[in-house]
Design goal:
heterodimer; A: mainly alpha; 59% helix; B: mainly alpha; 2 helices
């Protein structure tokens, strides 16, 4: 009985502080140096404004140029097919989501909308395809913004 | 000329290149992922189109 009441041996394994199934500390450790907050915000802003510029700012120029080309080509194909450049329509909440997705392209969206007064043409035969290309361009750039955030915060190389 | 198949291939090409560059660093892994994505999208599109073939696409065209 005295053996049961005795304190545990010092060599006993420590109780895990994290619940089972969560990531170990080694997985959450940064894989690259973290940027200061100001530079991280600048990188994210540049990534949103111009596709690929955030990667160029983080010294990943080749990747940035490839991303820039891909997003611009998607935009160009979408515009050539007269796809819809969304704007918010009161009462149609899906138009808000679509506008958010297309604003994801950053400056090109505003150049198209306010500089070139592009709107798309619903009667065009490629209208639906063009809209898909324009939405995809915006969503791709939003993913690039998240990628720049991951790189800048040291979670990705 | 508006070709549905050509647009599908262009779309698959763009998206495959994008995710390949985003997700992989080594050249060999990039090539493998690109092939998987591209073939998956184009092949998947063709399979879905083939499955939808028996279904009517709308009212019959008027007889001239």
């Amino acid at each position: 009985m005295a053996e049961i009441a005795s304190p545990p041996a010092p060599s006993a394994p420590p109780t895990p502080s994290t619940p089972a199934g969560t990531a170990s500390p080694s997985r959450t450790a940064p894989v690259a140096p973290r940027l200061p907050v100001a530079q991280l915000v600048m990188a994210v802003a540049l990534a949103w404004l111009v596709p690929g510029l955030g990667h160029v700012y983080l010294k990943r120029a080749v990747r940035g140029l490839i991303f820039f080309a891909l997003v611009i080509v998607a935009l160009a194909v979408g515009c050539s097919l007269q796809g819809n450049l969304y704007r918010p329509v009161p009462g149609q909440w899906l138009s808000y989501l679509a506008t958010f997705a297309e604003i994801g392209t950053g400056v090109p969206y505003f150049v198209l909308r306010y500089g070139m007064h592009y709107e798309g043409q619903q009667e065009a035969p490629g209208f639906e395809y063009g809209t898909a290309f324009l939405l995809t361009a915006g969503l791709m750039n939003l993913l690039l913004v998240l990628d720049v955030w991951d790189i800048g915060s040291g979670q990705k190389e | 000329m508006l070709s549905h198949f050509l647009l599908m291939v262009v779309y698959a090409l763009l998206v495959s290149c994008f995710f390949t560059t985003l997700w992989r660093r080594e050249r060999r892994a990039q090539m493998w992922l690109f092939v998987q994505l591209f073939v998956g999208m184009v092949g998947g599109g063709l399979i879905v189109a083939w499955l939808m073939y028996p279904f009517p696409s709308g009212p019959p065209a008027p007889i001239p």
